[in-house]
Amino acid sequence: MAAFKELVFSGVQPTGNLHLGNYLGAITKFVTLQESHDCIYCVVDLHAITVPQEPLTLTNNIREVTAAFIASGIDPKKHIIFNQSQVPEHAELAWVLNCTARLGWLNRMTQFKEKAGKDRENVSVGLYAYPTLMAADILVYRATHVPVGEDQKQHLELARDIAQKFNNDFADSIASHGFGEEFFPSPEPLIQGPATRVMSLRDGNKKMSKSDPSDYSRINLTDDADAIATKVRKAKTDPEPLPSEEKGLETRPEADNLVGIYAALSETTKAAVLAEFGSAQFSTFKSALVDLSVAKLGPIGGEMKRLVADHSYIDSVLADGSERASVLARRTMNSVKDVLGFIRR
Ligand code: AMP
Ligand code: TRP
Known about the structure:
By secondary structure, the chain is mainly alpha-helical. 54% of the residues lie in helices and 6% in strands. The protein has helices at residues 20-33, 45-48, 55-72, 89-98, 103-107, 110-116, 125-139, 153-169, 171-176, 225-234, 253-265, 270-277, 282-309, 311-340, and strands at 7-12, 38-43, 80-83, 145-147, 188-190. Strands 1-2-3 form a three-stranded parallel β-sheet. Strands 4-5 form a two-stranded parallel ribbon. Helix 3 (55-72) crosses helix 13 (282-309), helix 4 (89-98) packs across helix 7 (125-139) and helix 10 packs antiparallel against helix 13 (282-309). Bound molecules: adenosine monophosphate (AMP) and tryptophan (TRP).
């Protein structure tokens, strides 16, 4: 395999209600990876409009995700934070990849099936093509590593299939232009740890989600200490005390979820949490979870609120990040055009 420089890319949609699942499944990973890799973190506003958005709300949500990245500890000077729509090469490469991806591949995407539901005739074409834009986001930087939550695994596999098909379809042209054997890397998903799929606090079989109508189902990053305490105390549980070993969580989705959240927030494992809390009642465990959640999330929520109010700072971070991202994206897109046989300026 050709050697690609290691580069991290990931995206978060500006669709409001950033929650603990986004934080533990994705954003904390983004923060850690800064130490070992060059990282590009994108507010994917083009993905957001695959379902209807109110323009003023969308603007606020773009700033909120940006603020969450910074408040969580991502350094926008050392790495890149930007919003997708400021770098048109994402959409440009997505079109090319729409011509690489096969209809049958997209037909298998479970997220589309879930989001479209019964009203499939009436959803946007963009919602269907969403995964090829996601592949373009990654491949336009030739990124090699992609930290995401479990729900994005299938989309990452598709991105790898698209990269490979492009490399095969244009193998001769790629070689004759001196790009070696592989033009795009196969981006590797990074899905690890005890909270890759944080579940709803109201139903341990449902994913914690921005769009759940019940605010009690999730802890929002901007929730204050009182809200966090109320939501954790009201979280659904079963009547048994906590088990001492992980096996005892297998048939208890709500207990499993809370233990996973505790493990992720305290940067340990579920086994270690159960070693401490095994045979404790939920009332005891929930009190500890409230304290931990407030200690970890409180400062981030506070800093987010402060940053979101400073429009000129946030917008300047996005402008600066977009400029630096554009240089990289333009370089790939020019090469893609050469490979395809397009004439360019
Ligand atoms: P989204 O809000 O859909 O743009 O998701 C942003 C990131 O958060 C993606 O990497 C998702 O996989 C991750 N994510 C979203 N919901 C959850 C969840 N309930 N548990 C873990 N990760 C999640
Ligand atoms: N689809 C991802 C989500 O909903 C967001 C996303 C868009 C993304 N483009 C990406 C994630 C590229 C990783 C890499 O969570």
